[in-house]
Amino acid sequence: MIESSSWVEKYRPKRITDVKGQPEALEKIRKFIESFSPNSSKKALILYGPPGIGKTTLAHVIAIESSAEIFELNASDLRNKDKLNEILKPAIQQKSLTKERKIILVDEADGISAVDRGGLQELLKLIDLSPAPVIITANDIWDKKLAPLRKKAEMVQVKQVDYKTIKDVLIYILRRENLFIKNEILTAISVKARGDLRAAINDLQTISKLKDPSSVIFDERNKETDIFNALKEVFKSRPSTELLSVYDEVNMPLDEIILWVEENIPQEYKGEELAKAFDALSRTDVFKGRIHKQQYWRFLVYENILLSYGISASKKEPKIGFTSYKKPSRILKIWMHNQRTMKKKSIAEKYAKYNHIGVKRALNEFNILKPILKKPEVQDELKLSEEEREYLNKS
Ligand SMILES: Nc1ncnc2c1ncn2[C@@H]1O[C@H](COP(=O)(O)OP(=O)(O)OP(=O)(O)O)[C@@H](O)[C@H]1O
Ligand SMILES: [Mg+2]
User: Fold this and answer.
1) CA dihedral defined by 233, 237, 241, 245, rounded to 10 degrees?
2) 71 CA to middle of ligand 2, Å?
3) If you measure from the C-alpha of residue 139 to the centroid of ligand 2, how many angstroms do you get, rounded to a whole number?
4) Which fold is adopted by the domain 163-215?
5) Whole-prediction pTM value?
6) Which residues, other chains included, contact 243 with Cβ-Cβ below 8 Å and sequence gap of 6+?
7) Torsion angle, CA of 140/143/149/151, rounded to 10 degrees?
8) Main-chain phi, psi angles of 45, to 5 degrees
9) What is the tens place of the pLDDT at every residue in 17-58?
10) Cα separation of 242 and 246, whole Å?
11) What is the Å distance from ligand 1's center to 101 Cα?
12) What burial letters (b/e) apply to 197-211, b meaning 16+ CB within 10 Å?
């Protein structure tokens, strides 16, 4: 349980006007609730997006605004027939209950896909039978198994909160608490949170307890500013040997950098330059193939050269002016998703080996195992890597 003195709880928005950002999501949920009828073609709405951006909060706030009562169900409730019947029966039978507004909230539905089919089937049934709108929240809803659920529901993406908005929230909280923290530190917290408002508020609370908040060192740099600067160097300036270290400062694996470069080549280069740049890029792929096949890591150097000097030298003249570089949206999502599944798999493999069980079984039971896997002693015992630990502790 979160302690009641936590600022995250204390400052959880109670009314719509307290919610920062998220205008589109709010509007869509409101419409959904208002136009809901038991015969609606879509009786459920899925709020999806990364952690700490207000999905659960949005559901509660809308409920308050439309004077609806929330019935909350979690993934394990769905596997519990008695509990489901208990909730559905009054909801189906008693007309008086349907007069008062109800919202059924299935919070953090991600768990459903990983555990068993039963939970999902129950959820689908619940949506069909429910006389009340069903709101579902999830971080990751793109599992193949969840396709039937996606079909039944209106999908609403909740976007990351930008750092300025996060900073506004932090300033508001500090005022309420009668505290002062330096502007640079607030900026650093907001940037470091990468859209996760909950993380930012927690950091703020921790830091505010320190005697000297300015002693805090922020090791995590702003990933996106770094890559934007590197792209600017590569695309705009003349090729030079200094360029070879341009990505050293970027806190991102080379594979991810490739996606950024790929996405932005057409923003800068046209015609012959474009062809040359893509040629350099395609050669990085050749090396990548060899690296994976032969585990010959020295080829990484060539990848880096092609991505920096190679891309830079594709142009005839240095470029001037401002270019707004784009984040590789779709591909990056798939890539990050794969990275995550890879981590999950490697953890499951270690666990399976340790316990002499099959990897498949470890994967199937992954969500049940999670609380155990989160224990530092267990992580030590399984010799989990930093990234694997981070994956577990974040999820
Ligand atoms: N848009 C927002 N405006 C104001 N405060 C917010 C907003 N989003 C999040 N918060 C703050 O962050 C906390 C966490 O938000 P919430 O629990 O709704 O996130 P979530 O998206 O449901 O995360 P998870 O995916 O981890 O369940 C809230 O208690 C609130 O203090
Ligand atoms: Mg939530």
Assistant:
1) 0
2) 15
3) 9
4) Helicase, Ruva Protein; domain 3 (1.10.8)
5) 0.58
6) 233, 234, 237, 308, 309, 312
7) 100
8) -135, 130
9) 999 889 899 999 999 999 998 888 999 999 998 888 999 999
10) 7
11) 24
12) bbbbbbbbbebbeee
pLDDT range class, residue 394, cuts 50, 70, 90: confident
List the chain domain ranges: 22-157, 163-215, 223-312, 329-394
Three-class DSSP category at 137: strand
What length is written for the chain?
Answer: 395
List, chain by chain if needed, residues with CB within 6 Å of any ligand 1 atom.
Answer: 8, 11-13, 19-22, 51-57, 108, 137, 139, 161, 169, 197-198, 201
The reply to whether CATH 3.40.50.300 applies to domain 22-157 is yes
Ligand nearest to C-alpha 16: 1
Q: Judging by DSSP bridges, how do beta strands 102-106 and 134-138 pair with one another?
A: parallel
Q: Exposure of 34 by Cβ count < 10 A (0-12 exposed, 13-18 middle, 19+ buried)?
A: exposed
Could you tell which of 57, 60, 64 is best to mutate to test the pocket of ligand 1, judged by most ligand atoms within 8 Å of the CB?
Answer: 57
Closest alpha carbon to 5 in 302, 205, 160, 171: 205
